[in-house]
Design goal:
10 helices; disordered C terminus; 39% helix; alpha/beta; four-stranded antiparallel beta sheet
Length: 258
């Protein structure tokens, strides 16, 4: 049995089948990539897994336990995390405050204690800040802790979004184009961070990425979507040689251009 499994998942908007009977099997600590042309259903897939859009059919299991009926916040609590393509942060808040929001499900104080301003609230806030600062330090972002997110470049915001997701202590983390808007140095830093996350923390990563060089060098397994269906799966080398992938996504030329 796979650590995390998606079985025959479908998503329908109106009469449009955005995702059609897609199945993925992910092991603990593995890095899986999802690629495909625009409109292939990649973001719809992770929106469905995270609970942001309803599914029309299929199952999602973590450690063999069905989670597809859980609301989004409960999926996050059991360990299914994600980042967003455009970094959905609070621009008028500091970097550390944004990252601290990722740990809300693990907060030690109750709502009543927070409202009353009890010592438990103060202790919980100190602990939350320490956890956020530890993650920021791992990304080299600690000096920006008190900067406003709205004043920062897009590439940095993407790294902050990833840091916030990690504070939630996910077991499965879905990344929607984690290196978009980044320069080469920033992209390489994120690639290295992803490898550490999977290797040291044993977090399973499901990564959507348009940069073929990035995803082919990062993922253990690549899944290819086209018109909502999975048309190929395999190692980066196998996918690059697959005629269906070359036709649907990489063009009619050699897959070595990926």
């Amino acid at each position: 049995m796979s650590f995390f499994s998606i079985d025959r998942l479908s998503v329908i908007f109106g009469g449009l089948r955005a995702v059609s009977n897609v199945s993925l099997q992910l092991g603990e600590g593995e890095i899986h990539g999802v690629i495909g042309p625009n409109g292939a259903g990649k973001t719809s897939l992770i929106n469905a897994v995270s609970g942001l859009v309803p599914i029309a059919g299929g199952t999602i299991r973590l450690d063999g336990v069905p989670v597809h009926a859980l609301p989004p916040h409960r999926r996050a609590e059991v360990g299914i995390g994600r980042t967003f393509q455009h970094g959905e942060l609070f621009p008028d808040q500091t970097v550390v405050a944004n990252v601290m929001t990722g740990g809300y499900a693990h907060r030690k104080s109750s709502l009543l204690q927070d409202l009353l301003g009890t010592p438990a609230k103060a202790a919980a806030e100190r602990q939350a800040r320490r956890e956020a600062e530890n993650v920021l330090d791992a990304f080299g972002l600690l000096p920006l802790s008190d900067a406003l997110v709205g004043d920062l470049p897009f590439g940095t915001i993407k790294k902050i979004d990833l840091a916030r997701a990690l504070v939630a202590r996910p077991r499965v983390l879905m990344l929607d184009e984690p290196t978009s808007g980044m320069n080469e140095t920033e992209a390489q830093e994120v690639i290295a961070a992803c490898r550490r996350i999977a290797g040291e923390l044993r977090v399973t990563l499901l990564v959507i990425e348009h940069n073929m060089r990035v995803i082919m060098g990062l993922a253990h397994t690549i899944h290819v979507l086209d018109h909502g269906e999975k048309i190929a799966e395999g190692t980066p080398e196998q996918v690059q040689r697959n005629p269906l992938v070359i036709e649907a996504y990489l063009g009619h030329g050699s897959a070595s251009h990926a």
